[in-house]
Design goal:
By secondary structure, the chain is of the alpha/beta class. It is built from 11 helices and 16 strands. It has a 6-stranded mixed β-sheet, with helices on both faces. GO terms for molecular function: acetylornithine deacetylase activity.
Length: 427
């Protein structure tokens, strides 16, 4: 008698071309972000695919022209058996000058052991494989006792938190897999938050008065907001160095928790003393930290920096943190995610990975970020596990190994059938 793993392998071998055709269909949709607002047709395709697999679906606009799609296939004994969320983003990175590509970014090209196209690795490959793994189980007649939920979300490439929108609507589960690029490693992540720091004068002065501000006896208690921002940047550098010495987390090289002064905007005209300056920063933090904790550390440190300067003491920096879109808000948040290697779902996923690939699963931390932190923040145990390598994501001639796609599909099918047919652990 053949095992389920063997049945899946045989079925996938017979239908491999169909899997690649599905990926080809998804790559054909130019869901580039930015500019975004272009995912409706792709999401309708996924919604239709899910409904043909007996999912009940919901679609709603997170932004006009960018809807989320969530499908749920109820298990036959939902109250007693584990539920599972499969999460992935439908948007892809911008292409730039497509003349640098060997072929059209939105026409899947198969060459040797790889397929090429925008989103092949990040992460339409993961979406296609997960959808196809469900199709395989359906065609094999495999019963699922627990609920299976599929989330196709928008906006991950520009911090638009389509996954956050899912959790805000109450979608939850006993475990979640974000099928983003991880080279089939099981991963958690650090976090990222952006912020705007503003230094602003209460008064505006003509350029001709600068000499009265900087020389003794000038009589004007004023300052350039740009020059005062230099002190703020120096304060951030001091805090960054302090973090690199005092903080660490297993799986991360020292000092990866950085504060990057990414963009600076200031002044109104060459004939004026700059009365306002804004600094856009990107902050990386460790998995055992929340963005609220990191925000407080930065604000406390900069307020103390301001107290040491007579002008900044009276004109302290102002802060605006995060946002739900780099396009709309010029800000984003990616919460961190810790993983428990001993969680029953992680153990089972690792076991199925080994059975399929004949290699031990690598459990660790990603150096990148994705939406998995939003699921963890909602109290859902989660990991990132998907095909493709980070160096191929966002690249010209983006590619993914066909072998890796097949291994991922088999692993997902086996894990779904196992986890959704495992009784919930009652506390």
């Amino acid at each position: 008698m053949t095992t389920l793993t063997e049945q899946i392998e045989i079925k996938l071998e017979e239908t491999q071309d169909e899997l690649l055709q599905l990926l080809e269909e998804l790559v054909r949709f130019p869901t580039v972000s930015p500019p975004a607002r272009n995912t409706t047709e792709a999401q309708l395709f996924i919604q239709n695919y899910l409904e043909h697999l007996n999912f009940k679906t919901e679609k709603w606009d997170v932004f006009p022209g960018d809807p989320n799609v969530v499908g749920i296939r109820k298990g036959t004994d939902s109250d007693r058996y584990n539920s599972l969320i499969l999460n992935g983003h439908i948007d892809v990175a911008e292409v730039g000058d497509d003349s640098n590509w060997t072929s059209s970014p939105f026409q899947l090209r198969k060459e040797n052991k790889y397929v090429y196209g925008r989103g092949a690795a990040d992460m339409k490959g993961g979406l296609a494989c997960a959808l196809f793994s469900i199709k395989l189980l359906t065609e094999l007649g495999i019963e699922l006792k627990g609920d299976l939920q599929f989330q196709s979300v928008i906006g991950e490439e520009v911090g638009e938190a389509g996954t956050l929108s899912c959790t805000e609507k109450g979608y939850t589960g006993d475990f979640a897999i974000v099928m983003d690029t991880s080279h089939l490693n099981i991963q958690g992540q650090g976090g990222v938050i952006t912020g705007w720091i503003t230094v602003k004068s209460k008064q505006t002065f003509h350029d001709g008065l600068r000499s009265k501000m900087i020389h003794a006896g000038g009589g004007i208690k004023g300052a350039s907001a740009i020059e005062k921002m230099m002190k703020v940047i120096q304060g951030l550098q001091e805090l960054e160095r302090h973090w690199s010495i005092t903080k660490s987390y297993p799986g991360f090289p020292p000092g990866i928790n950085t504060i990057n002064p990414a963009v600076i905007e200031g002044g109104r005209h060459a004939a004026f003393i700059a009365d306002e300056c804004k600094l856009w920063i990107t902050v990386h933090f460790y998995p055992d930290e929340t963005y609220e904790e990191v925000i407080k550390e930065i604000e406390d440190h900069l307020y103390n920096t301001a107290l040491a300067d007579p002008w900044l003491k009276e004109n302290p920096p102002e802060f605006r943190w995060g946002g739900k879109s780099m396009i709309e808000d010029r800000g984003e948040i990616f919460p961190s995610l810790e993983i428990n290697p001993d969680h029953p779902a992680v153990v089972r996923l690792s076991n199925h990975h080994k059975k399929v690939t004949n290699e031990e699963a690598v459990i660790g931390m990603s150096t990148s970020v994705n939406d998995s932190g939003w699921l963890g923040r909602a109290g859902i145990p989660a990991v990132t596990y998907g095909p493709g390598q980070l160096e191929d994501a966002h690249s010209v001639d983006e590619k993914v190994s066909i072998h890796e796609l097949l291994d991922f599909t088999k692993t997902m099918a086996c894990f779904i059938a196992d986890w959704c047919n495992t009784r919930k652990e009652r506390e």
